[in-house]
Amino acid sequence: MKVKKTTIAAIFLILPGVAVFLFFNIYPILNSIYLAFTDAQLGSYPLEETKQVAITGLENFRWILDDSTFRDAFLWTWIFVVISVTFKVLFGLLLALVYNSQWVKGKTVYRALLIIPWALPLLFSVLVWYLMFDPVVGPINTILRSVGFTSLPKWNIDANAGFFALVIIETWLAYPFMMTIITSALQSVPVNLIEASVIDGANYWQRLTRIILPIASRPIAFATIMTSATSFQYFLVPFIYNSVLFEDRFLLLYGYRKSFAAAIPHYGRAAAALVIALIILAIFMYVGMKITKIQESVTK
Amino acid sequence: MKPSKIVKITFISFIAIIIVFAVLFPVYYMFQLSIKPSGTLATTELELIPAEVTAENYKELLIGHREGKVRAEEFTLLADEVTIDGETKITFFGATVLAKNSKEFNLMNAELLEYRAEDVREEEDRILLVGGDYAKLKASELKAKRVIGALSIEAKKVIVEGSNCDIDLSLFRETAEGNFESENVSMVIKNVKMSAQNVVVEVENFHSVLVSKVGGELLGYMKNSFILAILTVIFTLIFVIPAAYAFSRLKFFGGGHILYFYLMFTQVSGGLGIAGLVALYGMLVKLNLTDNIYILPLIYAGASVPFNTWLLKTNIDSISPDFDEAAFVDGAGYLQTIRYVILPMAMPGIATISIFAFIAGWTELILANLMLSEANQPLSVWLYVMLQNMRAVSWNEFATASLIFAVPVFLMFMIAQKYIRSGLTLGGLKE
Predict the structure, then answer these.
(1) How many whole angstroms separate alpha carbon A12 and alpha carbon A14?
(2) Which residue of A has its CA nearest to B401?
């Protein structure tokens, strides 16, 4: 069989990147999946000091599903997805509508300013919000106190208040993305359609719900799926904010702490938890793929 | 324009401005903290515009200062200003002081001018003299740690605030209720605490003199961050440029599939990264590559190969293939074509992936935190470690360090913004 010359050249050109990507990204993921079916823990993994890693089948999954912390983390991750996505979409939509309104002067300046959270490193943003939410001297509680609240939430050590803080942080982090996509969707609505509806006597709310949103719905749905995947993969923010407090609230954080922050790291169980997360991510990936296909066929 | 229209525009624009301010307030708050003097926090009220602005936090973190510690029984000093604190505050200007029965005092921004000592221990950023005949130091501020037995002071001018002291005030003018002033005085004061500004100190037969550098620790962490970021850029360019060229120009079996997989991968890479972390950690331990600052950039570059390849491929697509066909006709190989034809023309795309790679290397936290020992830690890990100990950290310095961490990323992102937006609807990317 004769292989085409361009194919050989292409293989050599893409090989360095593919090799490193496979070695440091794909291989560890596959290896993690393998570990999920073993009893890898301190002593046997990473270095086989006292005993060898043995395959234990579905034992880890059984243990994980029996663990109430895991079940909490699983449930709360979905609660977070629902709440945070609602906030993100509504806030993004609100900002897009306000800064797309004909009544606002200087729109481009505001839009440029509102992109700022996107341009900041995530670590910085979380540090900023950590100080904002400080229960004693942070501005948020200072404002609440001045408005007249007496029992102020302890944002950094109370799990429920902290959870709400994370929703706000995620909304803040993601609105530039949502706003940008929704703005361009709104701008794609034909002007003559809106003018026609004005002539027909439609008010703002009718125009928005009957004409603008239905036309812009597809990009918004696309952005919603994307941002749901982001919410589901929420890890870095709770990790920085308070990793102990949110161990039973976020799936990935649970997996991380089982392997790197436990007294006796049990890598097998951690991997099992992460594999469950992987399966859900694969579903997201599949849905994302379908949506992107639709998206492409729409734009073409 | 109708008046009702003007009212509506003003009102809605006003709301728009308020929203921008509210949303961006956290960033402003951080900036405001960084320019306030260290140790000042609004505990009860929010200060919108800081009353006192200083660059001290930046200076302290980036440069630091020298601190001196002197143990001696006796010292003489020349100072612009000497303050005796107690129930009555006495301030001397242009003073010469001889202090006896002292124990220890601290110097800010100290500089060792002269010394005669036998036991000199010099290290990097630190000099310690143990026992000696003579030493002369300059400092911006001096503070006695304990009560000093006896002070003989000669001064050009003195101000006494309060009258509850042993000083004979008959020769003083009373300038205000309980305030006294006099010129060219000389007096002896016993058992007091003192501090002084802009001083030259001389000590004889001292126990010890120590001058050491304090602060300025940020530079070391910045250096590590910089190494990680620059290496990530270099590796990324090596991996991505040839691959992007191949995906753009060469039609080969499976090319489209790999590219599609790359695109999908970028959307879930965060979660997959954490899932792979367990095995990646094990792998690095087995290969004995933990605490290796040169291997992490390779991993960072590898992780962003999909996104960057996609981005650069799109950029190369926009260059007409006529140029590289011309090069082929002239007998150039693939690598030569990339080097001499594609590289110069794809500069915007290459600059963009370089910026992304730099940001990735500069900001990565999880792996660096897990793998690196303190000497190799970058700025991101240092900030994370500081956060775990917020009650013991100066918020002003913390905010300053965070800003120093964030500003380069912010500027780079702003430069690359155009490309991020254009790639946005394709990749659905964030961060």
Answers:
(1) 6
(2) A124
Is the ipTM beyond the 0.90 threshold?
Answer: no
CA dihedral B226→B229→B235→B239, nearest 10 degrees, is -160
Distance from CA of A193 to the nearest CA of B (A): 23
The contacts of residue A272 (CB under 8 Å, 6+ apart) are: A36, A60, A61, A63, A64
A67-265 CATH, one of 3.90.180.10, 1.10.1040.10, 1.10.3720.10, 3.40.50.620: 1.10.3720.10
CATH class of the B218-427 domain in this structure: mainly alpha
Each residue's pLDDT tens digit, A277-294: 989 888 887 887 777 666
Contacts of B143 (CB under 8 A, 6+ apart): B105, B106, B108, B195
Confidence grade of residue B43 (pLDDT, cut at 50, 70, 90): low
Length of chain A: 300
CB–CB of A24/B300 below 8 Å?
no
Nearest to B27 among A10, A25, A128 (CB): A128
Are A31 and B279 within 8 A, CB to CB?
Answer: yes
Determine, for residues B13 and A106 on separate chains, whether the beta-carbon distance falls below 8 Å.
Answer: yes
Please report the DSSP string for B129-198 in residue order. EEEEEEEEEEEEEEEESS-EEEEEEEEEEEEEESS-SSS-GGGSEEEETTEEEEEEEEEEEEEEEEEEEE
Q: Is A35 on the interface with B (CB under 8 A)?
A: yes
Contact B271 A235 (CB under 8 A): yes
| 3-state secondary structure (DSSP) of residue B80 | strand
Amino acid B134: pLDDT: 92
Q: Does A177 touch chain B (CB under 8 A)?
A: yes
Would you list the domain boundaries of chain A? 67-265
A227 vs B contacts (CB less than 8 Å):
430
